Amino acid sequence: MDFENKEIIGFLSDPKIKAYVTNLNIRESLKSAEESRIIRDEGNVIFKKKKHSAEDHMNILYLYNESIACAPKESKELMLAYNNRSVFLLHLHKYKECIDDIDKVLELTKLNIKRIKLYCRKVECLTALGSPANKDVFNQVIQIFNEAKLSIDEQTCASEIIKRTKSILIANKLFVPSNRKFLKEKEEFDNIIKKKESTGPFDSLEIKMTKDMGRGLYATRDIEVGELVLVESVFVIPNVMYPFAYCYHCLRVAWNGIPCETCKQCIFCSTLCQDSAKKEYHDIECSFTAYIVQHQQNFSESIFFCLKIIILLFKKYKTVDKIQSELKKIDSQGNEICL
User: Fold this and answer.
1) pLDDT tens, position by position, 21-47
2) For the whole prediction, is pTM greater than 0.85?
3) Which has fewest Cβ within 10 Å: 38, 200, 213, 222?
4) Are 264 and 29 in contact (CB under 8 A)?
5) What residues contact 299, with CB distance under 8 A and at least 6 apart?
Protein backbone atom coordinates (compact mmCIF):
# COMPACT_ATOMS: atom_id res chain seq x y z
CA MET A 1 0.00 0.00 0.00
CA ASP A 2 2.93 2.37 0.67
CA PHE A 3 4.06 1.99 -2.93
CA GLU A 4 0.50 2.66 -4.17
CA ASN A 5 0.19 5.78 -2.00
CA LYS A 6 3.51 7.15 -3.25
CA GLU A 7 2.47 6.59 -6.86
CA ILE A 8 -0.88 8.34 -6.32
CA ILE A 9 0.71 11.31 -4.54
CA GLY A 10 3.36 11.59 -7.23
CA PHE A 11 0.74 11.59 -9.99
CA LEU A 12 -1.44 14.21 -8.28
CA SER A 13 1.60 16.41 -7.58
CA ASP A 14 2.39 16.74 -11.27
CA PRO A 15 1.93 20.44 -12.27
CA LYS A 16 -0.02 19.45 -15.39
CA ILE A 17 -2.48 17.42 -13.31
CA LYS A 18 -2.85 20.27 -10.80
CA ALA A 19 -3.59 22.71 -13.63
CA TYR A 20 -6.13 20.32 -15.17
CA VAL A 21 -7.99 19.86 -11.87
CA THR A 22 -7.95 23.61 -11.20
CA ASN A 23 -9.54 24.35 -14.57
CA LEU A 24 -12.33 21.82 -14.21
CA ASN A 25 -15.74 23.49 -14.16
CA ILE A 26 -17.29 21.81 -11.13
CA ARG A 27 -20.54 23.75 -11.53
CA GLU A 28 -21.22 22.02 -14.84
CA SER A 29 -21.55 18.70 -13.03
CA LEU A 30 -24.02 19.97 -10.41
CA LYS A 31 -27.80 19.80 -10.61
CA SER A 32 -29.35 22.93 -12.07
CA ALA A 33 -32.91 24.24 -11.87
CA GLU A 34 -32.42 26.34 -15.00
CA GLU A 35 -31.01 23.42 -16.99
CA SER A 36 -33.88 21.22 -15.83
CA ARG A 37 -36.42 23.84 -16.96
CA ILE A 38 -34.84 24.24 -20.41
CA ILE A 39 -34.79 20.48 -21.01
CA ARG A 40 -38.37 20.08 -19.76
CA ASP A 41 -39.51 22.80 -22.16
CA GLU A 42 -37.87 20.90 -25.03
CA GLY A 43 -39.91 17.85 -24.07
CA ASN A 44 -43.07 19.95 -23.89
CA VAL A 45 -42.55 21.22 -27.45
CA ILE A 46 -42.53 17.67 -28.81
CA PHE A 47 -45.40 16.53 -26.58
CA LYS A 48 -47.64 19.37 -27.80
CA LYS A 49 -47.41 18.14 -31.41
CA LYS A 50 -50.76 16.93 -32.77
CA LYS A 51 -49.33 13.56 -33.78
CA HIS A 52 -46.49 11.54 -32.29
CA SER A 53 -44.23 8.90 -33.78
CA ALA A 54 -42.50 6.18 -31.76
CA GLU A 55 -39.35 8.30 -32.00
CA ASP A 56 -41.25 11.28 -30.57
CA HIS A 57 -42.36 9.18 -27.61
CA MET A 58 -38.79 8.07 -26.94
CA ASN A 59 -37.53 11.66 -27.16
CA ILE A 60 -40.25 12.95 -24.82
CA LEU A 61 -39.43 10.29 -22.22
CA TYR A 62 -35.72 10.99 -22.62
CA LEU A 63 -36.10 14.74 -22.12
CA TYR A 64 -38.46 14.50 -19.15
CA ASN A 65 -36.14 11.96 -17.50
CA GLU A 66 -33.13 14.17 -18.15
CA SER A 67 -35.01 17.13 -16.68
CA ILE A 68 -35.70 15.02 -13.57
CA ALA A 69 -32.03 14.01 -13.34
CA CYS A 70 -30.89 17.65 -13.56
CA ALA A 71 -33.42 19.08 -11.10
CA PRO A 72 -32.26 19.84 -7.54
CA LYS A 73 -33.70 17.60 -4.84
CA GLU A 74 -37.24 18.52 -3.67
CA SER A 75 -37.28 21.52 -6.02
CA LYS A 76 -40.13 23.07 -7.99
CA GLU A 77 -38.43 21.93 -11.20
CA LEU A 78 -38.36 18.32 -9.99
CA MET A 79 -42.07 18.53 -9.19
CA LEU A 80 -42.89 19.99 -12.61
CA ALA A 81 -40.80 17.38 -14.44
CA TYR A 82 -42.54 14.53 -12.61
CA ASN A 83 -45.90 16.19 -13.30
CA ASN A 84 -45.25 16.54 -17.03
CA ARG A 85 -44.05 12.96 -17.26
CA SER A 86 -47.21 11.74 -15.53
CA VAL A 87 -49.30 13.47 -18.22
CA PHE A 88 -47.16 11.81 -20.88
CA LEU A 89 -47.58 8.38 -19.26
CA LEU A 90 -51.34 8.89 -19.16
CA HIS A 91 -51.19 9.69 -22.87
CA LEU A 92 -49.45 6.31 -23.40
CA HIS A 93 -52.09 4.48 -21.30
CA LYS A 94 -49.41 3.55 -18.78
CA TYR A 95 -51.76 4.05 -15.86
CA LYS A 96 -49.79 2.34 -13.09
CA GLU A 97 -46.68 4.28 -14.02
CA CYS A 98 -48.70 7.50 -14.20
CA ILE A 99 -50.02 6.92 -10.66
CA ASP A 100 -46.46 6.43 -9.40
CA ASP A 101 -45.47 9.82 -10.81
CA ILE A 102 -48.62 11.47 -9.47
CA ASP A 103 -47.75 10.26 -5.97
CA LYS A 104 -44.24 11.72 -6.35
CA VAL A 105 -45.68 15.11 -7.34
CA LEU A 106 -48.14 15.06 -4.43
CA GLU A 107 -45.18 14.76 -2.06
CA LEU A 108 -43.61 17.87 -3.59
CA THR A 109 -46.53 20.31 -3.78
CA LYS A 110 -49.10 21.73 -1.38
CA LEU A 111 -50.89 23.92 -3.95
CA ASN A 112 -54.58 23.03 -3.81
CA ILE A 113 -55.32 23.63 -7.49
CA LYS A 114 -52.36 21.42 -8.41
CA ARG A 115 -53.50 18.68 -6.01
CA ILE A 116 -57.02 18.78 -7.47
CA LYS A 117 -55.60 18.26 -10.96
CA LEU A 118 -53.36 15.43 -9.75
CA TYR A 119 -56.10 13.59 -7.90
CA CYS A 120 -58.43 13.92 -10.89
CA ARG A 121 -55.71 12.43 -13.09
CA LYS A 122 -55.35 9.63 -10.55
CA VAL A 123 -59.10 8.95 -10.69
CA GLU A 124 -58.83 8.60 -14.47
CA CYS A 125 -55.98 6.08 -14.10
CA LEU A 126 -57.73 4.05 -11.39
CA THR A 127 -60.92 3.94 -13.46
CA ALA A 128 -59.03 2.67 -16.50
CA LEU A 129 -57.43 -0.01 -14.31
CA GLY A 130 -60.79 -1.05 -12.88
CA SER A 131 -59.82 -0.12 -9.32
CA PRO A 132 -62.67 0.58 -6.84
CA ALA A 133 -60.37 3.10 -5.14
CA ASN A 134 -61.33 5.65 -7.82
CA LYS A 135 -64.43 6.72 -5.86
CA ASP A 136 -62.45 7.37 -2.67
CA VAL A 137 -59.91 9.47 -4.54
CA PHE A 138 -62.70 11.45 -6.23
CA ASN A 139 -64.17 12.17 -2.80
CA GLN A 140 -60.76 13.58 -1.82
CA VAL A 141 -60.99 15.90 -4.82
CA ILE A 142 -64.39 17.20 -3.72
CA GLN A 143 -63.16 17.69 -0.16
CA ILE A 144 -60.13 19.70 -1.28
CA PHE A 145 -62.30 21.79 -3.62
CA ASN A 146 -64.81 22.59 -0.85
CA GLU A 147 -62.19 23.43 1.77
CA ALA A 148 -59.58 25.21 -0.34
CA LYS A 149 -59.45 28.96 -0.75
CA LEU A 150 -59.18 29.15 -4.52
CA SER A 151 -59.21 32.25 -6.68
CA ILE A 152 -62.10 32.75 -9.10
CA ASP A 153 -59.97 31.58 -12.02
CA GLU A 154 -58.81 28.53 -10.05
CA GLN A 155 -62.41 27.69 -9.10
CA THR A 156 -63.47 27.84 -12.74
CA CYS A 157 -60.55 25.66 -13.83
CA ALA A 158 -61.09 23.14 -11.00
CA SER A 159 -64.83 22.92 -11.70
CA GLU A 160 -64.22 22.02 -15.35
CA ILE A 161 -61.65 19.36 -14.40
CA ILE A 162 -63.93 17.87 -11.73
CA LYS A 163 -66.86 17.80 -14.16
CA ARG A 164 -64.78 15.94 -16.74
CA THR A 165 -63.45 13.52 -14.12
CA LYS A 166 -66.96 12.80 -12.85
CA SER A 167 -68.06 11.85 -16.36
CA ILE A 168 -65.10 9.44 -16.58
CA LEU A 169 -66.07 7.98 -13.22
CA ILE A 170 -69.68 7.47 -14.30
CA ALA A 171 -68.69 5.90 -17.63
CA ASN A 172 -66.43 3.52 -15.68
CA LYS A 173 -64.67 2.39 -18.87
CA LEU A 174 -62.00 -0.24 -18.31
CA PHE A 175 -58.88 0.03 -20.48
CA VAL A 176 -58.14 -3.15 -22.47
CA PRO A 177 -54.62 -3.17 -24.00
CA SER A 178 -54.34 -4.34 -27.60
CA ASN A 179 -51.34 -6.53 -26.74
CA ARG A 180 -52.94 -8.25 -23.74
CA LYS A 181 -51.91 -11.74 -24.97
CA PHE A 182 -48.27 -10.67 -25.00
CA LEU A 183 -48.60 -9.01 -21.59
CA LYS A 184 -50.13 -12.17 -20.11
CA GLU A 185 -47.32 -14.33 -21.52
CA LYS A 186 -44.73 -11.87 -20.21
CA GLU A 187 -46.28 -11.96 -16.74
CA GLU A 188 -46.21 -15.77 -16.75
CA PHE A 189 -42.59 -15.76 -17.91
CA ASP A 190 -41.59 -13.23 -15.23
CA ASN A 191 -43.24 -15.41 -12.56
CA ILE A 192 -41.25 -18.44 -13.76
CA ILE A 193 -38.02 -16.45 -13.48
CA LYS A 194 -38.89 -15.16 -9.99
CA LYS A 195 -39.68 -18.70 -8.83
CA LYS A 196 -36.36 -19.97 -10.19
CA GLU A 197 -34.47 -17.10 -8.57
CA SER A 198 -35.93 -18.03 -5.18
CA THR A 199 -34.68 -21.64 -5.43
CA GLY A 200 -31.06 -20.66 -6.07
CA PRO A 201 -28.86 -21.40 -9.10
CA PHE A 202 -27.49 -24.75 -7.96
CA ASP A 203 -30.55 -26.87 -7.17
CA SER A 204 -29.95 -28.77 -10.42
CA LEU A 205 -26.40 -27.71 -11.37
CA GLU A 206 -22.89 -27.77 -9.97
CA ILE A 207 -19.52 -26.31 -10.90
CA LYS A 208 -16.81 -28.93 -11.10
CA MET A 209 -13.60 -29.84 -12.88
CA THR A 210 -13.34 -32.80 -15.27
CA LYS A 211 -10.34 -34.18 -17.07
CA ASP A 212 -11.85 -33.93 -20.56
CA MET A 213 -13.83 -30.66 -20.37
CA GLY A 214 -12.11 -28.69 -17.62
CA ARG A 215 -14.08 -26.47 -15.27
CA GLY A 216 -17.75 -26.03 -16.11
CA LEU A 217 -21.44 -26.40 -15.24
CA TYR A 218 -22.81 -29.92 -14.94
CA ALA A 219 -26.33 -31.21 -14.25
CA THR A 220 -26.93 -33.00 -10.94
CA ARG A 221 -30.23 -34.54 -12.09
CA ASP A 222 -32.25 -35.20 -15.21
CA ILE A 223 -33.52 -31.95 -16.73
CA GLU A 224 -36.83 -31.73 -18.59
CA VAL A 225 -37.00 -30.34 -22.13
CA GLY A 226 -37.68 -26.59 -21.92
CA GLU A 227 -36.98 -26.44 -18.18
CA LEU A 228 -35.39 -23.24 -16.88
CA VAL A 229 -32.21 -24.35 -15.13
CA LEU A 230 -30.37 -21.14 -14.30
CA VAL A 231 -31.12 -17.45 -13.74
CA GLU A 232 -28.00 -15.31 -13.58
CA SER A 233 -27.61 -11.60 -12.89
CA VAL A 234 -26.13 -9.84 -15.89
CA PHE A 235 -23.18 -7.47 -15.79
CA VAL A 236 -24.50 -4.38 -17.54
CA ILE A 237 -23.08 -0.99 -18.42
CA PRO A 238 -25.07 2.18 -19.13
CA ASN A 239 -26.40 3.01 -22.56
CA VAL A 240 -24.18 6.00 -23.35
CA MET A 241 -26.20 6.89 -26.47
CA TYR A 242 -29.51 7.21 -24.56
CA PRO A 243 -28.55 7.42 -20.87
CA PHE A 244 -31.88 8.89 -19.72
CA ALA A 245 -34.16 6.47 -21.57
CA TYR A 246 -32.86 3.34 -19.87
CA CYS A 247 -32.08 2.36 -16.30
CA TYR A 248 -28.43 2.99 -15.46
CA HIS A 249 -28.25 -0.30 -13.54
CA CYS A 250 -30.38 -2.87 -15.41
CA LEU A 251 -31.13 -1.20 -18.80
CA ARG A 252 -34.91 -1.52 -18.50
CA VAL A 253 -36.87 1.34 -20.09
CA ALA A 254 -37.09 3.95 -17.32
CA TRP A 255 -40.78 4.87 -17.60
CA ASN A 256 -40.74 5.89 -13.92
CA GLY A 257 -37.09 6.88 -13.84
CA ILE A 258 -35.79 8.26 -10.55
CA PRO A 259 -32.56 10.26 -10.36
CA CYS A 260 -29.36 9.89 -8.40
CA GLU A 261 -29.65 12.35 -5.52
CA THR A 262 -26.15 13.70 -6.16
CA CYS A 263 -25.14 13.57 -9.82
CA LYS A 264 -27.16 14.34 -12.94
CA GLN A 265 -25.66 11.66 -15.17
CA CYS A 266 -28.06 8.78 -14.64
CA ILE A 267 -31.61 7.60 -14.09
CA PHE A 268 -32.85 4.41 -12.41
CA CYS A 269 -36.02 2.44 -13.13
CA SER A 270 -36.73 1.79 -9.43
CA THR A 271 -35.46 2.40 -5.91
CA LEU A 272 -34.27 -1.22 -5.95
CA CYS A 273 -31.89 -0.51 -8.85
CA GLN A 274 -30.92 2.84 -7.35
CA ASP A 275 -29.99 1.24 -4.02
CA SER A 276 -28.21 -1.70 -5.67
CA ALA A 277 -26.13 0.59 -7.89
CA LYS A 278 -25.19 2.79 -4.94
CA LYS A 279 -24.17 -0.21 -2.84
CA GLU A 280 -22.18 -1.94 -5.58
CA TYR A 281 -20.39 0.89 -7.42
CA HIS A 282 -22.22 4.20 -7.95
CA ASP A 283 -21.34 5.58 -4.52
CA ILE A 284 -17.75 5.80 -5.81
CA GLU A 285 -18.19 6.58 -9.52
CA CYS A 286 -20.87 9.22 -8.86
CA SER A 287 -18.31 11.88 -7.97
CA PHE A 288 -16.33 11.69 -11.21
CA THR A 289 -18.64 10.25 -13.89
CA ALA A 290 -19.62 13.80 -14.85
CA TYR A 291 -16.01 14.64 -15.69
CA ILE A 292 -15.72 11.59 -17.93
CA VAL A 293 -18.80 12.68 -19.86
CA GLN A 294 -17.67 16.32 -20.12
CA HIS A 295 -13.96 15.96 -20.83
CA GLN A 296 -13.54 12.62 -22.61
CA GLN A 297 -14.35 13.05 -26.30
CA ASN A 298 -15.97 10.09 -28.06
CA PHE A 299 -16.18 8.11 -24.82
CA SER A 300 -17.75 4.67 -25.10
CA GLU A 301 -19.30 1.93 -23.00
CA SER A 302 -15.84 0.41 -22.55
CA ILE A 303 -14.86 3.26 -20.21
CA PHE A 304 -17.79 2.53 -17.90
CA PHE A 305 -17.14 -1.20 -18.24
CA CYS A 306 -13.54 -0.81 -17.05
CA LEU A 307 -14.53 1.66 -14.34
CA LYS A 308 -17.20 -0.66 -12.94
CA ILE A 309 -14.84 -3.65 -12.91
CA ILE A 310 -12.15 -1.66 -11.07
CA ILE A 311 -14.62 -0.44 -8.42
CA LEU A 312 -16.10 -3.91 -7.88
CA LEU A 313 -12.62 -5.46 -7.60
CA PHE A 314 -11.45 -2.89 -5.05
CA LYS A 315 -14.64 -3.27 -3.01
CA LYS A 316 -14.14 -7.04 -2.89
CA TYR A 317 -10.35 -7.35 -2.48
CA LYS A 318 -9.46 -3.95 -0.95
CA THR A 319 -5.87 -3.70 -2.31
CA VAL A 320 -4.01 -3.97 -5.62
CA ASP A 321 -1.90 -6.83 -4.25
CA LYS A 322 -4.96 -8.94 -3.48
CA ILE A 323 -6.47 -8.17 -6.89
CA GLN A 324 -3.26 -9.21 -8.63
CA SER A 325 -3.14 -12.41 -6.59
CA GLU A 326 -6.68 -13.31 -7.62
CA LEU A 327 -5.97 -12.58 -11.29
CA LYS A 328 -2.91 -14.83 -11.17
CA LYS A 329 -5.11 -17.66 -9.88
CA ILE A 330 -7.42 -17.20 -12.87
CA ASP A 331 -4.50 -17.04 -15.32
CA SER A 332 -3.03 -20.23 -13.86
CA GLN A 333 -6.04 -22.18 -15.10
CA GLY A 334 -4.76 -21.80 -18.64
CA ASN A 335 -7.23 -22.76 -21.35
CA GLU A 336 -9.64 -24.49 -18.98
CA ILE A 337 -13.24 -23.30 -18.94
CA CYS A 338 -13.59 -20.64 -16.25
CA LEU A 339 -16.95 -19.62 -14.83
Assistant:
1) 566 555 556 899 999 999 999 999 999
2) no
3) 222
4) yes
5) 240, 292, 293
